[in-house]
Task: structure prediction
Amino acid sequence: MTTVAEDRLTAAFAALADPTRRAIVSRLARGDASVTELAAPFAMSLPGISKHLKVLERSGLISRRRDAQFRPCHLEAGVLDGALDWITTNRRLWDERFDKLDTLLADLQRAPAASAKGRRRG
Amino acid sequence: MTTVAEDRLTAAFAALADPTRRAIVSRLARGDASVTELAAPFAMSLPGISKHLKVLERSGLISRRRDAQFRPCHLEAGVLDGALDWITTNRRLWDERFDKLDTLLADLQRAPAASAKGRRRG
Result:
């Protein structure tokens, strides 16, 4: 993996390592929202929310339109996919370990039967 | 979500927000390994690796046998599943947004045809 991809992944996981930022991502998964709308469910000042939004923006997980006066926050699902791919790949490696073990055990169970047959024939 | 579950998720994402720790998780997904084996691919001291292992251990992503003299590190795939579930759920919410939009557009496209038919019949 390139360093750029690694850095993106590090930033995405770091951004998700906070319950308020995860709640913001969950809200934006349902649709774009303004900072005021995002702040509403939290007992947090607007500057407090803005700080979290900056972390999310730097990680690439969210974007904000620069031109419009009402600048809604928008989820960038591609960055979420990067994190999802990484976990899925490693989860699969883990499962394959057990699949290989199952195959090995099945082979070992078949082996004595096969050699017994061989002995009967010989 | 309970606070305990939120704290677990925060710790898991924070643990994954580092390239060395992700490489350690990827190595352990292939099978248990000792600290020396885990340190081998990195230009890093054993205390440096131990620091990362402590973060992974605190997050619950890895465990180490207390009793054995050779204490291999072991991936706890359940914690990885927690992170995977969270991302998958939010990714699905995002997709459903577009599914709903597609349904709405299809309904709008069907509507004029249906009313035109109605006019022809009447």
In short: The mean pLDDT of chain A is 88. The interface with chain B takes residues 6, 9-11, 13-14, 16-19, 22, 25-26, 29-31, 75, 77, 80-81, 83-84, 86-88, 90-91, 93-94, 97 of chain A (CB under 8 Å).
